[in-house]
Amino acid sequence: MAETKNHSRRQFIGSLAIASVGAIAASAQGGEMGMGMGMGPSKNKVVYQLNKSDPAYILDILHSAAVVLGHFNNDVNIVIDCFGPGIWLLVKDEHNKHHYEAFIREQVSSLAMYGVVFNACEQTMKTIKITAKQLIPEAKQVFSGAVDLMLLQQQGYAYIAW
Q1: Strands, sheet with 139-142, edge to edge from the N-terminal-most edge strand
Q2: Helix and strand tally (H, E) in the chain?
Q3: Do residues 8 and 59 make contact, with C-beta atoms less than 8 angstroms apart?
Q4: I need a labelling partner for 67 at 20 to 30 A (CA). Which of 16, 19, 42, 101 fits?
Q5: How do residues 5-52 score in pLDDT, each as one tens digit?
Q6: CB neighbours (10 Å) of residue 101?
Q7: What is the C-alpha separation between 149 and 145, in angstroms, rounded?
Q8: Who's near 24: CB < 8 A, 6+ residues apart?
Q9: Cα 108 versus chain centre, distance
Q10: In 3-state terms, the chain is what percent helix, strand and coil (to 5)?
Q11: Using one digit for the tens of pLDDT, what is the confidence trace for 69-112?
Q12: Measured between alpha carbons, how far is 74 from 53 in angstroms, rounded to an integer?
């Protein structure tokens, strides 16, 4: 199990390194970059459904987002919709019954620095009695995770579910 976790970490870190190199290369070439670096909308758009609290599941989605960032040289808009048990990814440790390891929190912060948006479902928050102040800074509240998935797909986002 530990070997699998370390392998996933190495893959994820490698993907972030690829994304960093892509950002530097595109910047040096004067290339236009997407929301991943705060430069405007991209034609490349993807939304992930994150609705489980399992750390391995979460790392798979975070890794996939990093791979997509690297593939498109950060010229991609990525949204990760967190709802149901997946909302716990966006809840601060002191209010979180799952207590994710620091590595997962670091990956969320790193991806957010590249423009990945982490949406928190307000309906789930109401159900489990979580307030906006209890969310991590990277979280952005949306009315409903399911509604958000629909709206983003209508805007041309590719929908990815694990």
Answers
A1: 139-142, 117-121, 77-82, 45-50, 158-161
A2: 5, 5
A3: yes
A4: 101
A5: 555 555 555 555 444 444 433 433 333 333 444 556 789 999 999 999
A6: 11
A7: 6
A8: none
A9: 6
A10: 55, 15, 30
A11: 999 999 999 999 999 999 999 999 889 878 788 999 999 999 99
A12: 27
State whether residue 77 is helix, strand or coil.
strand
Q: How far apart are CA 64 and CA 16, in angstroms?
A: 10
C-alpha–C-alpha distance, residues 47 and 75, integer Å: 14
Three-state DSSP at 40 gives coil
Q: Which residues, listed in sequence order, are joined to residue 121 by a DSSP beta bridge?
A: 142
Both tokens assigned to 60: 């798979």
Tokens of 31: 């290339």
Rounded Cα distance between 86 and 51, Å, is 4
Q: What is the pTM of this model?
A: 0.78
